[in-house]
Fold each of these.
Amino acid sequence: MTRIAIIGGGPAGYEAALVAVQLEAEVTLIERDGVGGQCVLADCVPSKTLIATSEAMTSFSHADRVGITTHGEVSTRLSEVNARVKALALAQSDDIGSALSRQGVQVLHGSARLAGAGKVEVSGDDGTQVLGADAVLLATGARPRVVPGAETDGERILDWRQLYDLPDLPEHLVVVGSGVTGAEFAGAYEAMGSQVTLVSSRERVLPGEDSDAAELLQSVFLRRGMEICRGRAAGVTRTPAGVRVQLTDGSVVQGSHCLMTVGSVPNTAGLGLAEVGVRLTDSGFVDVDRVSRTSVPGVYAAGDCTGVLMLASVAAMQGRIAMWHALGEAVQPLRLRTVSANVFTDPQVASVGVSQKQVESGEVAASAVTLPLGTNARAKMQGVTDGFVKFFCHPGSGTVLGGVVVAPTASELIMPISMAVQHGLTVDQVAHTFAIYPSLSGSLTEAARRLMLHGADR
């Protein structure tokens, strides 16, 4: 029986374990913090649970659009919100642990490192042991990057894993970093009642996303009262009243708390990688190919420690691909162009396939159409005014190449476009698909019809 050792129990690790036992391998998973990894315990699951509360607050604040008047102040009790966040994360971890146990995966609590060819050294509560393995998967994830001079203290200067210990809602939260994590938390805390200043080193929020979507979201943030400050943080210090954020241009932003969202660094130190010859990138991520192989035969890597499109869905697929390859199954290499991603702001921003930037630069030839969500009958009924649907297709064949959705439920609405990209469907096929009336998804088929009729002119 093939022996598989998996270091790390996040999405890459536990999904790989489930595939491996299904293929009748003997699987040992080593996790230091808890099954589910930081994704479940401190990152994705907790943050999206918190955002669910902010979405409910936003619904209350917009109730007048559908004829509802709320009497009295609607407020958030952060201690209760955080308790719910932590409880749900632990419950999710328990569910994953139970699933692994039922399938026969051995889970060891501790730290692990490569100890030579086919050997993994595990240090845990019961001492140190060395496991033999025919294949090893590194799935150790990443952690928040620390800016020198802006070290976190867990009280006033925080990274996103430390937010859930706050006893009260920050009076004035300064969020440093306007990427996905910064935008999500800035929007969430603003909706829950904090004054928010978002410090952005770029011209707009979400610099890596579709420009139309980013500009729309930024206008929504400003309309709701968020302050957006251009600049790069040089340091953050405590003051008697809160925090002082010093920018590189000499200006200062003051608040009660500061949240640092300036990227992640891989957890690759202390794993014995250099000793066995596993190649790292200049940024310290594990260098892998499209089937998750490292530079050392029999050693695979998946998830955030590889730096490949750091999403839980991608991590899970990398882990599955690694096991299919290691255990001799037919496997399709990772196809990043079919990966859909979502920013859980309000409205949400979802995308898949080619981007507006690729089209505008001439890298990809595509026809496009953008349909404002405000023209949708269901959106009018729900009082939704911000959002749009954008389709890209090949100008000749009409094959769907990608799309962008900005809407309250963009994470759900992107799925049909993802399926079209994955399976090479044309806008004609999407246009001839029945959509419920009235529904927000009707905008997808309407956009496809417009692109089908007028694609050559766009």
Amino acid sequence: MTDHEPGENSQPGPFDGSAGADDGDLSDLRSSLSSLSNLATGQLSLEEMLTHVATFAVRAIPGANGAGLTLLEDGRADTIVATDPFVTEVDAIQYGLGEGPCISAAAERRTMRSGSLGSEHRWPTFGPHVDRLGVHSVLSLPLLTPDGVFGAMNVYAHARDVFDEHAAEIGEIFAVPAAIAVQNAHVLDRARRLAANLQTALSTREVVDQALGVLRGSNGWSATEAFEHLRSISRAQRAEVADVAQALVDDAVRAARLRRGGN
């Protein structure tokens, strides 16, 4: 039940034809890597992408019953997905306590492995909690990129001592392209959010300008006087300036239509 350093032993890896490398395991790994490479990142939301990655990890790593993937942003767990409800429950305990294999894997930038979580001295509070849920084995893999740790992947099994060195090696092989996929998905998601925020800002500016035009035209005010009036309404109603502006423009449009209808 020791931690596993990537590349720390000189034994043949899963692709080297070692005795521990089962043909079925290699087939599952290749299939998962192929599925990962074929993901259409631009057509998926960030959470959908992360869920796919976690699902492929369960398929790739021998003995896995479920997996969770955590994206780190600004040093904290930002987006968490899971392939199974029991994984969601386990990871909620982990992040609620601030202790567990995923947190350790991300902090120490190395694989964490245990086959008896109930008696695991590294996570003395987390271990007994998940032991009572019938989860005894874990393999936690940091998602490392040239830019740093982007997250971590937790792979769980109900039985004891499920993940051996062979499983850890397979997990580490899968984690390399998985980290790049997660990073790309994160960059794309941030770009989408930025574009949406810019569009919202432009729309807000447009409706505020329209409202200021209505106030200036109907009252003969300066731009400053019109804006101060808009702000005073916003404070009085405890509403956003943009919402007040939209209501004022809507009222002006309705009044103009009524005038046209009456002619």
Amino acid sequence: MARTTSKFVCQACGAEAPKWTGRCEACGAWNTLAEEAIEAKPKALGGAHKGRAVPFVGLRGERAPAPRLATGIAELDRVLGGGLVAGSAVLVGGDPGIGKSTLLLLAAARVAANGHGAVYISGEEAIDQVRLRAERLGIADSPVKLAVATQVGDIAASLASGDAPEFVVVDSIQTLFVETLESAPGTVAQVRAAAHELIRLAKRRGFALVLIGHVTKEGLIAGPRVLEHMVDTVLYFEGERTHRFRILRAVKNRFGPADEIGVFAMGEEGLAEVPNPSALFLSERGPDAQPGASVFAGMEGTRPVLVEIQSLIAPAQPGTPRRAVVGWDSGRLAMVLAVLEARAGLSFANQDVYLNVAGGLRINEPAADLAAACALISSLAGVPAPADAVVFGEIGLSGEIRPVAHAEARLKEAAKLGFKRALAPAPHRTGGKPARVSGIDVRELGHVTELAALLARTHSTPRRSGHA
């Protein structure tokens, strides 16, 4: 007869411990160990169990891959890599109220309107609440099959009977529970078991499964980290509550490029797609150039995006100067400031430095170094950067400006939005070919002193200390 035992599982990382301690030894989190009952399996009689032989096949299949299922939302399809893949599992995370349920309900309605079977299962809201959202979005007449359930066994039995749907949304994975486990919904064991059962059913029945997940205060999807390894695609829905922009970002995708983004705008009638995010991010930019602003030509996945980087330099109070940054890495800002001081002779020692990426977008690529440096020098000198120019390039510790990938795509996006000039790295110094786009005059820069000489005419004469 099986005997019941218990263990303590960290709700942050999923590590197990034989007894309760205040701190998890695996991840270092405090007060995250929770007791969970487990069912010990009896030992097999007659020795170890012998498994059956697994057949092996070649890499090349005889059947052509099935076409992707388009959701009808172009930005979502773009992030997914062209649409949903049959039998795949997608995990969507984001802050509460960011618009995850709204986006997936709208996607289910579009899929159903195109003649495909779509199911929306809610574990958090009542049917009337989901219907109210559908009326607000104008999709109340869509043939979406709606259900409210939290028990995985009931959901699996419903999806396994009859004709399988093609698209299933579960909102959310943290509300589901498996009856055979005594732990509460949302615990590591329940989330792992519920996700495993639904993913296995999706691959057996061939429908695309989308799981909505809660996030922790650190911005990571709550539950065991193995949950992100179990699914095929992980998407994060990002955005500040004070901004109307929402960014859907792919951080893992087995069927398409990772780090792809989709841009949405939150309006009175819900989420709206933004097919040209560059124009939207620059829509509030004034016609007259102001000191401390530069336009960065970045890449988000395969999409070029233009965004304004703003900087403010102000006299600091006695003590340690303040360094504040929004939308960029604070460590990267500290490095750029150190390079400008050591290699270009500019002083920020007694100045408060504020850097902001306008529009709520977060930039992760090193190509933003040159645009940030341009905004910093422009603010320090009080000289506006060229209003019709875009800036991109990586800055090294010796002050050299290094080439970055996709220069031609960045320049084409700038030309499409009416920019005439670009401040970019000099690729010929590293043996590369210069990017040329009709209508864009490229000013090639090899060192930060060249940028300082271009912008800081009225501040000081830059010196080339330490320039190799």
Amino acid sequence: MNKRIWIVCFALMILCTTSVYGLVVRSGDNIKIKVDEVIDDDLVAFGQNVSIKGKVNGDIYAFGQEVEVTGDVAGTIFCGASTVDIDAQIAGSVWAGAGKVSIAGNVYNNVLIFGGTLDVEEDATIGNDLIVYGGKAKVAGEVDGMIKGGMGTFIMSGKSAKVNINADKIRIKSGALISGDLVIESGQEPVIEEGAEILGEIKLKSIEEVDEEVAFAIVPIIAFLIIMFKVIVFVAKIIVGIVLIVLSKKYVRRIMDTVISKPWHCLGWGFIGLIVIPVAVIILFSILIGYPFAVFGAYVYTFIFYLASIFAGLVIGEKVIRLFKKEGEISLYLSLIIGLIVLFVLGLIPILGFIVKIIVLLFGSGMVLYGSWNLIREMKAKELI
């Protein structure tokens, strides 16, 4: 039966092997990808200062105090920081949020930016739409698609196929070219300087029409924030897992061996933990004197199920490595990173991701509960506690 379990796990992991292979993760105070460096897959970078000057043949996920991307990027740039500066010669798309965002270079698809000050520089070209939300937005570059969004102040001196915005102050400067309509919602009349060309109509929209479009445009922002949250949780789990291994490698090894040797016991304990602990907490909350125990039980419940994916990732990562390394000791740190990457990628797949999360929750929490219980029993037998 144990072999069948691992065969199922291997089948799931093989589905995502292509996506996971080659993922590059960089973290530290100062992250630098040099000009002559080439990364042939997705790049995840966390640091105080992130500077990417080399070529990335995949997506970039960069988060820090300051993020700078000046190298070529085949995929999408996802970044969040205090200051973001994108000046790539070529990039697929850009999703950026920061206090100050600057976009230059050539982006051949969409750009979504939000923050305090948003600048699209004069030498910037955007092949599709520009979606902007922030305090002040200045567009001096060329946008082949539509400019849309909401901001306090909007200043345009570049080119666009159409503009549809909600802003308190609007200035269309001399030299600007809008080949379609200028659709606005503002408390003030727009300032259109002499020399600005608007080939379509200037339309003042009602508040109801604008609200519908803003609600629709917020959807990609929410999606970006969800992805950012998932990446942060992923990195946090790696850090917690490393700390656990450093502090108690033998305990971690013992918990991992529990699910390997007795998977069905772990599954049973996982079901018990999933059902019994919440019921007990609710009962204790209903009893006045049981309130402190209920709070403690809720804390334990949260702690166990947070550790579930970390220990499950350790076991999965070790099994993946063992497919290629038949003999010798396997690093727990490497197992942790590979296992969590597998779970992260599977979690992004609709339906399958939900099923995997339930399986991980049951087996992972079960191995923590069952393994800890056996360890406590042994310590009592040896009169250590």
